[in-house]
Amino acid sequence: MMKNKDTLKNYETSRRSFVQKTALATSGLLTVPLSVEAMANVHGAKKLKLALIGCGGRGSGAAVQALTADENVELVAIADAFADRIEKSLNGIKDHFDGKKKIDVKEKNRFVGFDAYKKAIDLADVVILTTPPGFRPYHFEYAIANDKHVFMEKPVATDPVGIRKVLATAKMAKAKKLNVVVGLQRHYQTKYIDIKQRIDQGAIGKIRSGQVYWNDAGVWVKKRQAGQSELEYQMRNWYYFNWLCGDHILEQHIHNIDVANWFIGDYPVSAQGMGGRQVRNGKDHGEIFDHHFVEFTYASGAVISSQCRHIPGTMRRVDEVFQGTQGSVEIGKGLITDLEGNSQYKYPRKWGEDSNPYQVEHDRLFASIRNGGVIADAENGAMSTLTAILGRMATYTGKKITLEEALNSELHLMPETVTWDSTPPSVPDSEGNYPIPTPGKTKMI
Amino acid sequence: MSSKLKLVFTFLVFGFLFSTAQEYFTETLLGTDHSLDLVFVKGGTFTMGSSKSEVGHFGDEGPQHEVAVDAFWMGQFEVTWDLYNLFVTREIDAYQSKKIPTSEVQIDVDAVSGATTPYVEMSFGMGIEGYPAICMTQLAAVKFCEWLSAMTGHFYRLPTEAEWEYACRAGSTTSYSFGNTTENLGEYAWYASNSDDKYQLVGTKKPNAWGLYDMHGNVAEWTLDQYVPTSYRTRKELVKNPFQEPSKIYPKVVRGGSWMDAPKRLRSAARRPSTKKWKMRDPQIPKSKWWHTDAPFVGFRVVRPVKTPTEEEQRKYWNYESTP
Lengths: 445, 324
Known about the structure:
The structure holds 2 protein chains of 2 kinds. By secondary structure, chain A is an alpha/beta fold.
């Protein structure tokens, strides 16, 4: 029935898409907005199946961004260690689209437990990896081994063994021409891209020093519930356990450390620093520090002071600042000054005028998949995570440590396999306190 | 003269005259050095909205109509981070004032829900001590009022739109409380042209005729009302204490304009609706109930009505946002 008409329509659309494809290729610019149907043809109409691995607030947010980035994406599978998380996540995603998008993950494609990720990844073309970071190397390895495109959140590991796994997998991803976007979203933020270009063009000369900050009041704490096993408690309150989180110098401050690496165009040679837990030191706070101060030294001699603090009532600042041979830049203010402090450039866009970098990450990822491009963020993601691990090693031990030592370290916080019968890598003493790193005593290599 | 001195002075002068109207009132919070300065705003009538001939007039500001407002105390300044963070961290809850049968508020502080800690540093490096709190949702501002009420035993809430405009005008009928032109705006307000792209310390510009600071500019301020662009059209005769009760989360009204805004948004009559775009960059789903990642221009101040509402009414004022 109506076969001729359909055929004709298909012919028309494919002819049109050919013309548009050619135009795109030659001009590199899309001047006429295409209808959704035409767009699907330009990039191939294939539906992309999406799986969400780790469906907390950030994972659910990333799923919404993926579903927004491309009209022809369907969320087909979801996995989490906890069943209650899945329901909550799907409801949040549905609510976001307000009925305007079909969100219908079949009951049999909702997977719970530590091996759930494999089953969900198997069903997808594109996967979102947003569990606590300790699991990331294993999930990433499985996804790439099975030819999936990946969006994964930072940090990408919590120990050097994990880093080496991610680096090896990153090579594999490149060879397979798979797209990997890492959630270091400053790389996708107009302001950072604009200022980076200016610095590359010599706006402040060569970077000699810098200060990077994540000083804030801290994050959530989940209280221990009656009847929870030690493992379940740590999985729920994961921020405070190093095998899962890696300490806040990784989990949050990696953003700022990564900007230092990106702007200098290198990774540091060594680090030394200090830290401790002065205020956030209760039984609910696991084993992580509440402050770290690290000096990263680069091959050029440039030194970056990195400070991160989770203490309420203290000075707050999340920012990156660099001093060069010919001037300085304060990224927060978007301000470039000369050696006398005179303004040379001010980033012109105001609040809310820039695009949302969390969305841009997914817009680029899906556009690249459609166009046969390759985004390869994993290697830098791993190296910046390693830089933050290096910083943590320095503050925990109180020693100077090289990046090479960190990269080759046998430190292995994250177990190869975890089941609900596993004993977590660190357990509390009879009073409920966890072993805390002690500078001068703790060994970290 | 510090506000505390003013309070003592006011007691001396008016206390003996058995006046009920203190001009200034300082709310102290036990367990902290921070306090809250309030100005007495006597009840009265005023013309709400603006005429079509006003420069910058927008359709939702008309028609102008007569409004009567009951007396209240109003925060002399926008709520600062110093105060707001006490609500976020809930560190001084143990110092809740003892309830006595005559307390305006009988609720327990433990029953007030608390804001989550944000993932983003919400002052965006613009300053904390003495600077206005920003980026809170209206729910968060409302819950701050409930928390403050529980802590002090005095009933606090957000101002209604009518109360806000009445207080902003402070008896004036002009575009701004000091006149019709923007010539002197910089003496009274932080706005796009003089703010250096950030909010500024509260109370550093001239106050209006009733002693209220930063009603124009610095940060825009939450009111209780749902934003209905046509709400004034239904008001014919003198309306007493008008209030557009909210029935959904968006849009609600913010007033006064901010450090980011052009002068016309700072006018006494200018209304701005809230939108869910103010959470655009919140990377989490569900997005936070407590924080507007993309509204670094929104803050608030509190009012304490002279006539305390009943317990049932109090609950209503503190729970509008959760109404579907």
